[in-house]
Amino acid sequence: MFRALADATRRDIVRRTLTEEATVSQLATAYEMSFAAVQKHVAVLEGAGLVTKHPKGRERLVRGNPDALRRIQQLLDAYEQIWRGRIARLDALLNEE
Amino acid sequence: MFRALADATRRDIVRRTLTEEATVSQLATAYEMSFAAVQKHVAVLEGAGLVTKHPKGRERLVRGNPDALRRIQQLLDAYEQIWRGRIARLDALLNEE
DNA sequence: AGAATTTACAACCATATGGTTGTATGTTAG
DNA sequence: CTAACATACAACCATATGGTTGTAAATTCT
């Protein structure tokens, strides 16, 4: 997921499709690159679970997935806890002295 | 920062140095790769602000930076808010009908 | 002073990534 | 039915990325 979010275009696609779903071609018009390039970005995001695609006739509605974002949040939260643990241990050490 | 966190070794270095600071060579012994490779990873993390280096004699103490993690948290939080906005708008639409 | 240690950095290599164009396939519109 | 459209995907290209080895500089140890 970090790898998928490492690209600015992809982050923007996530942001945009969180607000409201969009077809691949709608997304494609929004960026200064070919349709195929945007389509590949969407594929990467889908692979990482950051967006889902929902067929509707000949088009695919792309929808941002807030759950995936929350999973990253949780990972980062875990890191934060690790850090708090370090502080706690330093405190304990100081109190011993 | 996402790009820096996109590599598993680098995520592990962040995790490890959040717990307690370590020299570059201490880190290097922890991974199945050359010293130079680890040193480059640390440089990338430092460039992204995810760790800081503190000279101590001939060695450099590497320390994970919790503030950087919090900044990502905030970004993801903003995305979450965007999504909540969408839900709110959908609700408003339903209530109109 | 000289040897060993720790870091930095350059040069190089293989593969991944982000882009392109072209072609095929499924779906809607006339 | 045929034309147009939306998507998918392959092939290709330039650059980025993650790794290597080798060398140099700063610091510590004897």
Structure commentary:
Two copies of one chain form a homodimer. Chain A has one domain: Arc Repressor Mutant, subunit A. Chain A contains five helices and three strands, in the order H-H-E-H-H-E-E-H. Chain A has helices at residues 2-5, 8-19, 24-30, 35-47, 66-96, and strands spanning 22-23, 51-56, 59-64. In chain A, strand 2 (51-56) and strand 3 form a beta hairpin. In chain A, helix 3 (24-30) packs across helix 4 (35-47). The relative contact order of chain A is 0.15. The model of chain A has no long low-confidence stretch (mean pLDDT 95). The structure holds a DNA duplex (30 and 30 nucleotides). Chains A, B: One of its GO terms (molecular function) is DNA-binding transcription factor activity. Chains A, B: Pfam families: HTH_20 (PF12840). Chains A, B: It comes from Sediminivirga luteola.
Describe the protein's topology.
Two copies of one chain form a homodimer.
Chain A (H helix, E strand, L loop, with lengths): L1 H4 L2 H12 L2 E2 H7 L4 H13 L3 E6 L2 E6 L1 H31 L1
Antiparallel strand pairs in A: 1-3, 2-3
Helix pairs in contact in A: 2-4, 3-4
The structure holds a DNA duplex (30 and 30 nucleotides).
